[in-house]
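Quick start: what a row looks like.
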Amino acid sequence: MNVDKTVEVGKFGPIYKQFSGKPKEAIKFLRKTKNGECVNALHRDDIGDIDIVWGEVTDPIKHKGYGLAHIIDKHEKEINRLGFDIEDFIPIVVQFGNFNLKKSDSQKRVFESEGFRFVIALESENGGQIKKWLLTAFDIIKRPK
């Protein structure tokens, strides 16, 4: 994998542009580097390009956090039990999830598909543009405690 050494740095660390439209490669790369963001890695016609950020696990005991690090920490075992690797699962769920207007607001867009929900964060950036990035994804099937 050829990585440009003159990468910009943003809120989430290094900004990698070489994974535009390549979510599987972006996820594999972020898993390896554990830092930064891959801009425009995902796309939906109704929301546009979506970045994948590494993020962080803020509470490993309660599995709290955001971004890919959080999704891996909290859901990778479930995703593997479904027969998927996370780099295959995330693009499928993002592409085919249904928009949930009732659970969405000005700061996030919520999409749901068979048993899973994912949330796209919306942040205003300098210049008035909106940055869209994968905040989290989670299982919405209730399990007995």
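That is the whole record. The radius of gyration is 15 Å. The longest helix spans residues 67-81.
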